[in-house]
Amino acid sequence: MNIQIINGPNLNLLGVREKSIYGDTSFEAYLEQLRTRFANITINYYQSNVEGEIINKLHEVGFSADGIVINAGAYTHTSVAIGDAIAGINTPVIEVHISNVYKREEFRHSSLLARNCKGVIAGFGMDSYRLAIENLING
Ligand code: DQA
User: Fold this and answer.
1) Is the shortest distance between the CB of 130 and ligand 1 below 6 Å?
2) Which residue in 65, 79, 116, 119 is a FRET match for 135, CA 20 to 30 A apart?
3) How many CB atoms sit inside 10 A of residue 55's CB?
C-alpha cells in the first residue's frame, strides 16, 4: 500500500512556527514515527508553499497512490483550484488539520476542499495524520 502525504504552505515550519498552536515537533521527526508505526506500507511525503506545485503533485499521484492525506494549510480556505484537482483524481483524499480550525478565526471554518474529500480530520495535533492513515488502511 502506498500513501502520499501532501503538506501545503508554512507547514515546512512545523516545530518552529506558532508552537502553542502547532506543537514543537518538526514534520520530519513526526514522519519517522509514522513510518515506524506503519512499517508495512509506503508513506511518501511532499511539501510545497506553492499552490500550482500542490496541484501538480495531486495530478502526479492521484491515479496511482492508494490514498492521499492533505493538509493544504491556508489554501484549504481559499483554493478553488486545489479543490478542483481533488475532484479530478481517482485516489481517495483525506483533508487533515493539526489545529481545531473550528475553534479559531471564522475564515478558517470553511474548506473549499472538503466536499471533494473522503473526510476531514481536524484538531488532534499531529495525530490527525495518523488517524487519516488508519482510515485509508482500514478502507
Ligand atoms: C492548518 C489550519 C489552517 O487554517 C492554517 O492556515 C494552517 C494549518 C492546520 O493544520 O491546523 O496553515 O491547516
Assistant:
1) no
2) 79
3) 20
CB of residue 126 inside a 6 A radius of ligand 1: no
The C-alpha atoms of residue 44 and residue 23 are separated, in whole angstroms, by 22
Q: ipTM greater than 0.95, yes or no?
A: yes
The cell for 9 is 504552505
Report the DSSP pairing between strands 42-47 and 67-71: unpaired
Does the annotation place 66 within a ligand binding site? no
Q: Per-residue pLDDT tens for 34-43? A: 999 999 999 9
Domains and CATH numbers, the chain: 7-138 (3.40.50.9100)
DSSP H helix total and E strand total for the chain? 5, 5
Instruction: Enumerate residues 6+ apart whose C-beta is below 8 A from 53.
Output: none
